[in-house]
Amino acid sequence: MNRIVGIGACVKDTLLQVPDYPIEDTKMRALSSREAGGGPVATGLVAAAKLGADAAYIGVLSTDSAGEFLLRDFEKYAVATHLIEQKSGYRSFTSVIWLGAKNASRTCVFDKGDLPPLTLSEAQKKALAEATLLMVDGNELDAAVEAAALVRQGGGRVLYDCGGLYPGVERLLALTDIMIPSAEFAMGHTGCDSIEAAAKKLFSTYHPAVVVVTDGKRGGLLYDGKKTVTYPIYPANVVDSNGSGDVFHGAFAAGVCRGFDFERCCHFASAVSAIKCMGVGARESVPDFSTVQNYMKENGYEL
Questions:
Q1: Alpha carbon of 121 to those of 75, 83, 126: distances in Å?
Q2: Strands (DSSP E) along the chain, which ranges?
Q3: pLDDT tens digits, residue range 201-227?
Q4: From CA 32, how far away is CA 181, in angstroms rounded?
Q5: 91 has a pLDDT exceeding 80
Q6: b/e sequence 139-161, b meaning 16+ C-beta within 10 Å
Q7: Strand 59-62 vs strand 220-223: parallel, antiparallel, or unpaired?
């Protein structure tokens, strides 16, 4: 399969499953705790790799314990690490996430650390020029904009996981081929009061090949300049929703590299995300391709 490369947040998460959202100034015993790799693009790349894609992360990691953990986690899931630069003397991007058992909620507090911004090396630029697809999430914005231009010049495409409303994202949106915003981002960025209107405005403003708005438990919609198509969520007994959006984007990227059309990619990514939510862990619970095929067939969709 063709190569997917990614530039974006890479975070060491400490996940605490709690009975309910904690009340201020009280103590609560966690039901469970664990450490895991996180970040939209980083987890998306893991999902793509587990689904059979050739994936590589481009970025800067610290040599501290969290950075070493993140490097090993990429290796564990067969995401290539040769384009990662390690730097000593800096703090990694970390987070603490509360997973509420009662409502399947997710509450995140993060520390971005103090790593310097990514500056693309010649080796990284070469890899970008040869990539089939670049995944970005709005982090490392200057490097992501430069990378997007390189990928497109080489004939590849750019998939933007639009989650955070960061200053200057317009520069990256203008270089995006596959735009996948959350409903919050789409309506917040455009000022529209519906996801369909927001999708159409994003399309007319930035001219991507497609806009796919994700809307959590309500599924989402696709707009390609001609038609609007909704896609469903698949049935799931949700155990852990953390990272489900990241996994959706990675699965969508893997679908693109398999030659699926965009509507098919939506169904595929939605199914992968549903399966992931039935297990614990954003990365551990991502299924392989054959599992997704069987699950979709059981639910009336032939991939």
A1: 21, 9, 9
A2: 3-7, 11-18, 32-38, 54-57, 59-62, 84-87, 94-100, 105-111, 133-136, 157-162, 178-181, 210-214, 220-223, 228-231
A3: 999 999 999 999 999 889 999 999 999
A4: 31
A5: yes
A6: bbbebbbbbbebbbeeebbbbbb
A7: unpaired
Question: Residue 221: helix, strand or coil by DSSP?
Answer: strand
Q: Are strands 220-223 and 210-214 parallel, antiparallel or unpaired?
A: antiparallel
What is the spatial distance between Cα 141 and Cα 189, in angstroms, rounded to a whole number?
Answer: 17
Is beta strand 54-57 parallel, antiparallel or unpaired with respect to 11-18?
Answer: unpaired
Asked if residue 75 has pLDDT above 80, the reply is yes
Kindly report, residue by residue over 254-268, the tens digit of the pLDDT: 999 999 999 999 999
Q: Is the alpha carbon torsion for 197, 202, 208, 212 positive or negative?
A: negative
Q: Where are the alpha helices (H) located in 4-118, listed in sequence order?
A: 40-50, 65-76
Report the distance separating Cα 253 and Cα 4, nearest Å.
Answer: 8
Q: Where are the domains of the chain?
A: 3-22+30-298
Q: Let me know: does 171 contact 160? Beta carbons within 8 Å.
A: no
Ordered strands of the 228-231 beta sheet:
54-57, 3-7, 133-136, 157-162, 178-181, 210-214, 220-223, 228-231
User: What single letter denotes the amino acid at residue 88?
Assistant: S
**Mean pLDDT, rounded, for 168-181:** 98
Kindly list the distances between the CA atom of residue 20 and the CA atoms of 4, 14, 23, 298, in Å, as whole numbers in the listed order.
38, 17, 9, 33
Residues 6+ apart with CB under 8 A from 102: 19, 20
CATH for 3-22+30-298 is: 3.40.1190.20
pLDDT tier at 249, thresholds 50, 70, 90: very high
Q: Which pLDDT band holds residue 2 (cuts at 50, 70, 90)?
A: low
Residue 288 CA to residue 290 CA, distance in Å, equals 6
